[in-house]
Amino acid sequence: MEVEIKLWEIRKDKNVSLRDLEERTGIGRSTLNRIENGQSSPTLQEIGMIAEGLNVNPNELFKFIL
User: Fold this and answer.
1) Structure confidence at residue 2 (pLDDT)
2) Which pLDDT band, with edges at 50, 70 and 90, does 24 fall under?
3) What 3-state DSSP class applies to 28?
4) How far apart are CA 23 and CA 57, in angstroms?
5) In sequence order, what are the beta bridge partners of 3?
C-alpha cells in the first residue's frame, strides 16, 4: 500500500494559497511545495500544523493507494 498526501487537492478546494498556508502554519512555502509534489515527506508535527491550518482532520490529508 502506498500513501499519498492530498495537500494540493484540499488546498485548492478551500481556495488557500501556499502563501496563506505558510502564514497559517509557519511552514515555509518551499517545504509545503515539496510536500505537495511528493518530493518530501512531512513530519508528524507538520501534518498536524497543516491539518490545523486547513481546518481538516489530519486523516483527510492522506490518500491510500492499494
Assistant:
1) 66
2) very high
3) coil
4) 19
5) 64
- How is residue 63 written as a grid cell? 490518500
What integer is the mean pLDDT of 38-64?
Answer: 93
Contacts of 63 (CB under 8 A, 6+ apart): 3, 4, 5, 6
pTM of the full predicted structure? Answer: 0.90
pLDDT at 4: 79
Instruction: Evaluate whether 4 touches 38 at the Cβ level (below 8 Å).
Output: yes
Cell numbers of 39, please? 518530493
CB neighbour class for 27 (10 Å; exposed up to 12, middle 13-18, buried from 19): buried
What are the cell numbers at 45? 508535527
Question: Do 3 and 53 touch, CB atoms closer than 8 A?
Answer: no
